[in-house]
Design a protein that fits this description.
Aspartate Aminotransferase, domain 1, 4-stranded antiparallel β-sheet, 358 residues, alpha/beta
Amino acid sequence: MLEARAAVRTLPTYHPPLGGREGLRLDFNENTVGCSPRVLARLRELTPEDLARYPERQPVEALVAAHLGVGPRELLLTNGVDEAIHLLCETFLEPGDEALIVVPTFAMYEISAAATGAHVIVVPAGEDFCFPTSGLLSRLTPRTRLIAVANPNNPTGAAANSADLLEIARRAPQAALLVDEAYFEFYGQTVLPQFRNLPNLFVARTFSKAYGMAGFRAGALAGDAAHMAMVRRVSSPYNVNGVALACLPTALADGNYVQQYVDQVREGRAHLQDEFRNCGIPFWPSEANFVLARLGPLKSAFVQGMQARGILVRDRSRDYGCDGCVRITIGTIEHTNRLLVTLRQVLEEIGAKEARAR
């Protein structure tokens, strides 16, 4: 009888709660107003003939590479960062190899690595979700072939020190180190230029967050040209759709739109953290476009109360070390102001002040 591979049958599953997302969506770390108006205008220009053609990735890939300051042979456009993760696992992992991930983190690292038959080793984050450099280094073995790090991390918003990441790459030359910089624009620090000194270092970027193009499914993976040639071998030549390829040059050209949005997110992030601080609600300082806070036993009532008022937030209680935690995306100043007013109403309604007093 036909049967899926054992590695697939035992995979954890990722079930994003996508149904019924009406209202202000602060649950998926999306851009709350969407892509640049210039991107929408370019979208409207597409013709039936444009959509009938197989997509040609290379010219746009060269533009994105130049934008990131790398060569065309050092970058591959991908179907979101999810595909970048998958391709690295397919390129470098054999059954029985070891892949290291720091938890809590993005679920697709474990899923893509485990699907190859590799053994996934989880390294718990340190106190206050700080990056566990020594803990990760202690788990390196000759069988370590992949290390995946989200920087800043999701769902915590914490960032690892660049020097620590580079030290990990040096200490594990036999392993691919993926630094997933999906939230780079909100953080502003990168290890991207270092892969020329450390050929086992790979950096992923996305157009889903700051650029407001999550529906386009466009990401990028950069690394040593020789290694990227191997990654290309397991990639489809048509992995990025033609609509995304048509619109990416326009998105890159409208840097002012992206920067204005990022500036609003950073300002709103500070306001939300101040609000949690004033309310006595534990939270973790974030370098991304969201904040993780611990509501404890009031978590469900808080999520439901916010939804009843038209604002979606994300329950992260199932993540390692995140029991009672809620993650809230930051958007424009207008959306942050609405969030803060609603948050105060819901906290009063569910008796958060009284609960803290007890």
